[in-house]
Amino acid sequence: MKKIVINGMRPLYGEIEISGMKNSALPIVYSTLLVNGKCTVDNIPFVNDVLLSLEILRHLGVKVTAKSSSCIEIDTTDISLCDPPMDLVRQMRASYYLMGAQLGRFGTAHVCYPGGDDFGIRPIDQHIKGFEALGAKVNVSGGYIDIEAKNTLSGANVFFDVVSVGATVNVMLAAVRTEGVTIIESAAREPHIVDLANFLNTCGAQISGAGTDTIKITGVKELHGCNYTIIPDMIEAGTYMVAAAVAGGKVKINNIIPKHMESISAKLLEMNVSVEEYDDYVVVSRDGDLSCCNIKTLPYPGFPTDMQPQFASALCFADGVSHIFEGVWDNRFRYVDELRCMGANIDVSGRNATIKGTRNSLTGAAVRAIDIRAGAAMIIAALGAEGRTEIAGVDVIERGYVDMVGKLAAIGADIFKIGE
Ligand code: EPU
């Protein structure tokens, strides 16, 4: 079995290059289905979820050509409506962008129910509500979602009951080539929503308001190909900022947008970590002990749920009692059992976790990555722990992080893979 092995308590010194944002690349890759032509997309993170998505698109007739180590050409000239293999679609959540993309291109979609990480209940009612508001008929049965809207789609007002990244993306995809004006209220405001809007606008779409809670989409007849560069991954950057805070040392994290890092940087400062911000990089260092703090996760611009597990690991080393409230997902503390194997003192009650930390609280153990960010949290815990940690579930971590082992090894971590 593949494992990541880490011998902890080595300070980190050097520079890390941040890759393109996974959660931008995924909707952008699926949105190329709406384009008649070729798109050249740069700063693509070749993580497992993106590779799997490109594989799904190939089944629809999309031609994908590598241009460089981070750039691809996606040619959607000759695509057809077909049902991609269930075993691929079921491996990830973002495959549900096929719904909006197929609906927008063909006026109909037939997609099997998506898979993805287990964070408790993951309904798609808001996606369906959005499609229905645009005039589609949606039927979910036998593990499939059937969406039918031949000649009945038209722009409409869509009011979401919860702020959802996925539902916002799917309605944008369905509406961009639909006649009339669509207004999405209570839209997600994440940087990846803005990135998707910028990509689609570069292809000729008319989308305004992305980044606010009201997005206006004026339907256009066609989208053309374009050249586009994906924004840096704020969660990858945040993960290495926390790694540097736990391990100690001084790390320069390159190719970031500091504005996207604000809530993460603010928490690290509260924890007694030095974060120096520059135009497109940050320098993170720690001299003294980590301080405890309280965290509530929220949709952007609040503190991201996708950084919650990494901070939980860090707070195990912080002196005192910290509280985390998970405001986005029902059940995102399943990884806590893995941290407990390393000696963590964490109580979980529903969406609340209480962490009693001390400087030398964790020791190396055999643990596993139960989802992408939980895997990153195990790596961070292992960097600060005394002794050797072996982490199973390497493929899970590689669903979301580009060469995490190589990037950390290059700045002094004693980290390597076994069992390949
Ligand atoms: N929700 C509903 N109904 C819906 C859709 C969502 O009630 O129809 C609820 C969810 O149950 C959840 C909340 O709304 O409680 C937010 O869910 P959202 O739809 O925003 O999540 P998502 O689009 O499925 C994306 C990211 C996740 C990230 C969340 C929240 C991608 C591919 N995934 O998921 O990222 O945690 O937004 O920011 O963009 C990760 O990268 O590791 C990851 C899990």
Description:
This protein has 420 residues and is an alpha+beta fold. The chain has 2 domains: 3-19 and 232-418, UDP-n-acetylglucosamine1-carboxyvinyl-transferase, Chain; 22-229, Alpha-beta prism (UDP-n-acetylglucosamine1-carboxyvinyl-transferase, Chain). Helix content is 31%, strand content 26%. The protein is built from 14 helices and 23 strands. It has a 4-stranded mixed β-sheet with strand order 21-22-1-23. Helix 12 links the parallel strand 21 and strand 22 (388-392). Helix 1 packs parallel to helix 4, helix 5 (125-133) runs parallel beside helix 6 and helix 8 (234-247) runs parallel beside helix 12 (372-384). The radius of gyration is 21 Å and the shape is globular. The mean pLDDT is 96. The protein binds uridine-diphosphate-2(N-acetylglucosaminyl) butyric acid. Uridine-diphosphate-2(N-acetylglucosaminyl) butyric acid binds at residues 23, 26, 93-94, 117, 121-127, 162, 164-167, 188, 305-306, 328-329, 372-373, 400.
What is the compact description of this entry?
The protein is of the alpha+beta class and 420 residues long. The chain has 2 domains: 3-19 and 232-418, Alpha-beta prism (UDP-n-acetylglucosamine1-carboxyvinyl-transferase, Chain), CATH 3.65.10.10; 22-229, Alpha-beta prism (UDP-n-acetylglucosamine1-carboxyvinyl-transferase, Chain), CATH 3.65.10.10.
